[in-house]
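Predict the 3D structure for this chain.
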Amino acid sequence: MAQPRPADEGGRAPALAVEHRGLRNTFHGDVVAVDGVDIETSEGEYLVLLGPSGCGKTTLLRTIAGLEEATEGEVLIGGNVVNGLPPRARQVAMVFQSYALYPHKSVLQNIAFPLKAEKMPKEERERKARWAAELLGIERLLSRKPRQLSGGERQRVALARALVREPSVFLLDEPLSNLDAKLRALARDELKQFQERVGTTTIYVTHDQAEAMGLGDRIAVMYDGKVRQIGPPREVYDDPADTFVATFLGSPPMNLVRRGDHLVGFRPENLLPAELVSGNGDNVTASLEIARIEYLSGDRHVYGTLTGIGEETRVIARLPATITVPLEDGHTRDFAVHQRDLRFFDAETGEQTAVSPARA
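Done. Predicted structure below.
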């Protein structure tokens, strides 16, 4: 059994690394939810599991928590194998999408509930609940019931309830999905600041790429039960391992143009009117027949048909509103991409491959 390490000077348990070795989960005998996952976090890391619905990310999180049993492979927390241990023995705390607050209990009672279940004396558990509430800025709400709270406040209560157990690992399953767009942006910033303050290893599940890019020290992009790529957000965005990652990450997604045995990929923000792309012969120029232009916040999305890089293909260019080059529906003009911004993928496997500039 994993032995808890002593708490740090602030009273919290130290962060522990989480490792998955050859993890596999199958249901009903033949439905593969997680398929051979190998991931290792560092202590205090913020790792985001990103992918579409049904890719296996929540099953992976629940397996770490002990709510699902691994069919094959091992889960290690703090270097100790925890397969077979009940959730309470794993030094983890999980915050669900629904928050799962007790409607008839006050905020204070909700936060303190895990400690009551552990038979902690009332005075001690209320002291710890008030400490957690203060850390999350909700001490003024302690006497209220969940129905009297906003969505963002409920989310903080759920975090405080997780924190009060002093876990070494936080597991967060789409905790912002019930908030509106404005609140999500604010809550995302609060979550990042909170994690930096407490320093606890955090594994966060989401299908929202903005959350992944904004929160994660690293992102693990999942699809069909497998990790397709793992790395720092900028690295995964700029240098996708395959066409799934290339098109799942980014809004709009990466453009892909077929050229012979390869696909040529480039981000919409790298496709610009030719006169704006600097370089000494390192640019690839093509002709874009503009179909329509969308004005979105500070950007213009230019939709059209591109010829000159490979096969004729529908693409999207994303231009900052500050670019004043005249563009009109139905017009054709030269656009260009710098050579360094091109990525090449095998047309059969979808995996990124090296192609010399001479062949680009």
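DSSP finds eight helices and 18 strands in the chain.
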